[in-house]
Amino acid sequence: FFFCAPAPRPAVRPSGAARAPSAWRRPTGTMASADGTSFDIPARDLSAFFEDSSSGGHPELLEEVGGTKRLVKRLQTNVDKGLTEEQATDAARIAQYGTNVLPEKRKKGFYEFVMDALEDKVIWVLLVAAIVSLILGIFVSDHPDTAWIEGAAILGAVALVTFVSAGNDYSKENKFRELEAVKDDRQVKVVRGGEKKTVSTNDLVVGDVVLVETGDWIPADCVVVSAHSLELDEASVTGETKAVKKDPTKAPFLFSATKVTTGEGRAIVAAAGVNTQYGITQMVMRGGRSLDDDGDDGGRGAAGELPEDHPSLQKWPKNKRWLCFPRYPDGGHSDTPLQEKLGVLAERIGYLGMVAAVVTFIALVIRYAVQFATDGNWTPATLVKLLDFLVIAITIVVVAVPEGLPLAVTIALAYSMKKMMKDQNLVRHLAACETMGGATNICSDKTGTLTQNRMTVTEGYLGTTHYDTPAAMTAACDAFKQPLLENIAINSTAFITVDADTGVVDVVGSKTEGALLVLSDRALGGTYAATRDTLKSRIVHMYPFSSSLKRMGVVVRRGKKADNAYRFYLKGASEVVLRLCTRVQSPDDGTVAKLGKKAKAEAEAGITQMASAGLRTLALAYVDLEGDAVPADWEHPPEAQLVLQSIVGIKDPLRDEVPHAVEQCKHAGITVRMVTGDNILTATHIARDCGILTDGGVAMTGPEFRELTNAQLDPMLRGREQLQVIARCSPLDKYRLVKRLQALGEVVASTGDGANDAPQLYLADVGFAM
User: Fold this and answer.
1) How far is C-alpha 318 from the chain's CA centre?
2) In terms of Cα–Cα distance, which of 623, 679, 621 is closest to 647?
3) Angle, to 10 degrees, between the axis of helix 511-523 and the axis of helix 478-490?
4) Please, what is the Cα angle at 444 between 441 and 446, to 5 degrees?
5) pLDDT for position 336
6) Can you give the pLDDT at residue 754?
7) Alpha carbons 751 and 689: distance in angstroms, whole number
8) pTM of the model
9) On the chain, which terminus has fewer CB atoms closer than 10 Å, C or N?
10) CB burial of residue 712 (10 Å; 0-12, 13-18, 19+)
């Protein structure tokens, strides 16, 4: 009776057996859309493109369906305009290909947590002791009317402990499920109805046009339709950390849960949710299905089989519970390091308690045996006495085992996590809550972390002419404004959205680029969107922003292909771009003249003045390429003989709460350091305003930091004259700083909001991604 129901085995088909339908795969037949046309390519065929992801998928299968252009038509989408909202919510499309949401994990019932609690060996011993005590108390004891109370009390204590433990675990499990639901939901840039917008990854459907750029996660399995220097980190699917280059012809597949390291691109969602390779893997890990949608391994061997040690494949009694309850695969979370250590501590204390209990029990039995040998006869009361000794021993075990210690830590961490959620901090790793309290150093990015990331152009230079306000820039001639408008529009990946109800303007992407886009629309006599649409077909090559070079560029074709005429637009750190310029364009008539030493010195002084006022400075330039000046290839940007167009000062106000927060950190003994890619003058101005840079503190640039040996650097991290600001630093500079602090025994927390902050965020003991 107690062991009668085996756990349900997953439907894994033996080789050669008939195919079985899958409960978690979407339908793969042909279905009609809302307008009567049908989707004639099954979801299974689309998913097959991405199989064998370690070798880049199967481009030959894409060619079999007609190539990318034919695929776009068969999915009834448009590369330029994407899906309409009606198409994105079309019931036939969703029924055919599914949504980009994995089925909810099986929720453990409360009774399962009760079963878990009852599996404790101490509980079993107590149950046996309680039953024996009840039997002896009722049938053997001289006082059966009261002797049963002891056994009943033990049963009551067991029930109380079991249900309290199960209740806490049940509540904790529900909180983790809520956290999982929130953390898996990200925002992704798409084109719908010809407009760029952001939507939840959960709302993506097959046929959506997705825009990706440096730092983005790939939300579903996609096919590239256009790319510029696009490279991905596919370590999550291949195990190799080497960046993989993507293009529409040779390597057209983007795999879900991989990350863009450089470049940008446009792709069509071809597989979503459980049909992605990531989704298939997740479903297998949950313990239920083979990798194929119908149980067939498709000639790929046993890759889809569950491992032999999977709980649901174990023989009795490992896959059965008592009272006919099966043991299901546990898809829950792992314990944090502190919980694991406390668990080990509790287990060791438990062993010590068991030794003490055994010694106590043996001592009491020996003592009683001696008394019994001298003056006693065997009676039922003797058995009751021995049972009392056993209860005493069990009590020692129960009291000695600190089972509530790991539970108390879990409750405290869950409470901490909940409090942080209220402060808009999403805890992706619960262990971070433990480490965070012991942080001794914080390495913080500036933009978007210490500042509000609300960029506005407040002043600047057109050519070498200074303008106090953006409105004054409208006085420039059209021959000057048009090239500048083109540089801002095409040399950018950000875009602006306007809320139809409130009219609030929001920038999607880099807020710095957003400030320039707003300037172009308001002061340069055109719109960035129309200019971008006009020029995008003439883009020849793009150079994505590089944290080490501090600039980005784009090459566009001028006129017809036969003209062999091009223009290279450059945008980046003001002092870097200015150093490359040899000519300057006049805002009065658009003519180009030589940039003399005096004019360049005045421009440098202007940069210093704006940076000292806390403004972020950027410079824009271009160069025309014709005839022999056109390079044989575009591997390296053509940065010779650049024409300076403009230098702008962008204001990013400090967050109101930052100075007080920095002061609190100092009071708690935590050292706060700023690591930023911005100008040294801008960085020191902001650092002084928020209290990071103090009298005697050291501020330096990334190149200066790189020249320091570890022996020179270490005293600056722990001495009186501490290194407090690093400006114009690269991702590797941030990485090295965190690593040296850890080597000195510091617990480091790191904050950042860009892809260039990823190395330090991963290395730090606690990483806060903004």
Assistant:
1) 36
2) 621
3) 150
4) 155
5) 61
6) 67
7) 19
8) 0.64
9) N
10) exposed
Q: Are 551 and 576 in contact (CB under 8 A)?
A: yes
Q: Is 689 a catalytic residue?
A: no
Give the residue carrying structure tokens 């920038």. 507
Q: Are 428 and 421 in contact (CB under 8 A)?
A: no
β-pairing, 592-594 with 642-651?
A: unpaired
Assigned token pair, 619: 């410079």
CB hemisphere CA count around 94 (13 angstroms): 14
Classify residue 457 as left (phi > 0), alpha (psi -120 to 50) or beta. beta
Q: Tell me the three state secondary structure of residue 403.
A: coil
CB 731 within 8 A of CB 713: no
> Residue 431, SS3?
helix
Catalytic residue, chosen from 445, 733, 753, 765, is 445
Listed in sequence order, the residues at least 6 apart from 601 whose beta carbon sits closer than 8 Å to its beta carbon are none
Which residue in this structure is represented by tokens 């961490």? 413
Question: Angle at CA 645, nearest 5°, toward 644 and 646?
Answer: 105
For residue 334, the model assigns a pLDDT of: 54
φ, ψ for residue 543, nearest 5 deg: -115, 100
Specify the pLDDT at position 20.
34
Please say whether the beta carbons of 368 and 362 come within 8 A: no
Q: What is the pLDDT of residues 747-765, one digit of tens each?
A: 999 988 766 677 888 889 8
Q: Helix, strand or coil for residue 676?
A: coil
The pLDDT of residue 401 is 65
pLDDT in tens, 248-289: 988 899 999 888 888 889 999 999 999 998 888 888 776 654
Within 8 A by CB and 6+ apart from 690, the residues are: 450, 654, 658, 659, 662
Low-confidence ranges of the chain (pLDDT < 70): 1-38, 121-122, 125, 140-142, 176, 179-184, 239-241, 286-337, 339, 375-381, 398, 401-407, 410, 428-430, 754-756
Cα distance between residue 510 and residue 368, in whole Å: 82
